[in-house]
Amino acid sequence: xxxxxxxxxxxxxxxxxxxxxxxxxxxxxxxxxxxxxxxxxxxxxxxxxxxxxxxxxxxxxxxxxxxxxxxxxxxxxxxxxxxxxxxxxxxxxxxxxxxxxxxxxxxxxxx
Length: 111
Fold this sequence. Notes:
Layout: E1 8-9, E2 18-19, H1 20-24, E3 27-29, H2 44-56, E4 60-63, E5 66-70, E6 73-75, E7 81-85, E8 90-94, E9 99-101, E10 108-110
Parallel strand pairs: 3-4, 4-7, 5-8, 6-9, 7-10
Antiparallel strand pairs: 1-2
């Protein structure tokens, strides 16, 4: 397999080419953490790791359209973080023992 991570691309509607590895690291995609957007499988661990990474790497988290099943406890990060999804198309559904909890929130942006 050929490594193309440093190849440059010009995104539609833009004027500046950037390396693929730079473009893909702009945001943290929930699917890259193993979440299931169909809701058929539990995405608790993927969602927790994704949320933690938003603060660790100081990057926005993107949850693509889908239904993500949460069947365990998800703790919201204590630092500043931003997460967003596709309006009206992204939802987190708590099933079984699923729950979101926060002990101390900084600035949280949910777009």
